[in-house]
Amino acid sequence: MTSPSSNRAVLLTPPGVGAIGVVRLGGPDAPKIADACFRTAIGSPLSATIPGQVRLGVIHEAGEPFDEAVAVVLDDNGQKAFDFCTHGGVRVLERLLALFANHCVNMRDAHPQRPAFPFASLIEEEILTALAETKSQEAVRFLCYQRTHLVDHLEQLTCFAEQDLTVVRPFLEKLLDNAKLGIRLVQGIRLTIVGPPNSGKSTLFNQLLSRDAAIVSQQAGTTRDWVTHEVLISGWPVILTDTAGTHETPDALENKAVQAAAAMACKADAVIIVIDRSEPETPSLDAFLEFCQKTYAYQVIALNKTDKPSRLALSSERTANANVVSISARTGTGVDELMSAVLRKLSSGPANALSDSPCLFTSRQREVVKQLLLTLDRGPTNVDNLLRTELIGPIR
Fold it and tell me: What domains does the chain contain, in order, with CATH numbers?
């Protein structure tokens, strides 16, 4: 086979998540590599296809398919080249490029990391990076507003700091208070579903996604590992995680899954606790709810299976710190009310409410503001310089 530099693969679509991704494969060995990685749905192999034609098939690695794709055959100065049109998920494209790299293909960057024009500030760089990844129209509007107004707002604050430090603190405190909302709108609300086995966690998960992403079964312990998907709910990006059922078991693998579920839930912004109301309360359920009260900062209890007669009577002690919503995950009854309860607590309003005021949106920005407030506590200092160099960031 020829040297790696003779064969090349280029990602033609912009970085970030999209509906489709396109990778072009070219070079003297491109037909052989294409046949090794792409299996046509019917008929002759891809290398036998004349330029200008389109073939449907699957991309595979060592015989294992990992994405359905459309391949376009091109004429590249007398040699065949191929455009592979795949689903636009980042992982699919990364795997395809890695597959080509294993076949001695040189990766070419069609989108250099250095911009055509320098960033005006570190904040503008963060905005443009986030815009490439965001999936919500509300987040796009929010980021576009911040690009125009956030730096101007901070520059004004810098001028105030030069004259009177006493007026700076309220502005910084307000930015800090709203930062978690901006971060959630851009990066997503982390929402984890927990509960005993067979309580309906995966059914609720699928109901929220409107598709069967998690396996649903009457057998307890069907979900042994967590399953995560992103979904938009009322304009908010939500990173939704379905976990293994919480229960005691002699099975070592299931025990690890239960422990992983608890660790995942501790990192979440909110936890939905799914309880089967058609079954009576047990000591293990009471112990589980007590654990949730002590462990999770914000929780909503979903009393599931309202389509069946209720046999559950929870004590007020176990529901004292949680919103309680009755639902049927199977039919969807009450699910909208459940999500409204979650979003009311986490978002303090609709997603578009953040689009008309300066707001921080990264963990870096939030940490800098925390440090600035600590600096103010220590007395007069050069806060104006810190605002420019640490928060706004230098011009690049």
Answer: 4-108 (3.30.1360.120), 122-186+353-392 (no CATH), 192-347 (3.40.50.300)
Among candidates 250, 190, 239, 199, which has minimal Cα distance to 222?
A: 199
Per-residue pLDDT of the chain (396 residues; tens, 9 = 90+): 445 468 999 988 876 667 788 999 999 999 999 999 999 999 999 999 999 999 999 999 988 888 999 999 999 889 999 999 998 777 788 889 999 999 888 887 655 555 555 678 899 999 988 987 787 888 999 999 998 899 999 999 888 887 887 888 999 999 999 999 999 999 999 999 999 888 999 899 999 987 554 433 344 444 445 678 888 888 888 999 988 655 444 455 555 656 666 777 888 999 999 999 999 989 989 988 988 888 888 899 999 999 999 999 888 888 877 889 999 999 999 999 999 999 888 876 666 667 778 999 999 999 999 999 998 887 667 788 888 899 998 755
- ∠ at Cα 20 (15, 24), nearest 5°? 70
Question: Residue written as tokens 């039919």?
Answer: 331
* Contact predicate 106/33, CB 8 Å: no
Query: Of 65, 70, 74, which Cα lies nearest the Cα of 22?
Result: 70
Tokens of 141: 């509007």
Q: Which long-range contacts (CB under 8 A, 24 or more apart) does 318-325 make?
A: 318/286, 318/289, 318/290, 318/293, 320/293, 321/293, 322/273, 322/292, 322/293, 323/299, 324/300, 325/300, 325/301
- The C-alpha atoms of residue 12 and residue 89 are separated, in whole angstroms, by 14
Residues 244/225, Cβ–Cβ less than 8 Å: yes
C-alpha span between 240 and 206 (Å, rounded): 10
For residue 67, give both structure tokens: 């994405």
- State the pTM of this model: 0.69
249 DSSP assignment: -
Surface-to-core class of residue 252, CB atoms within 10 Å of its CB (0-12 exposed, 13-18 middle, 19+ buried): exposed
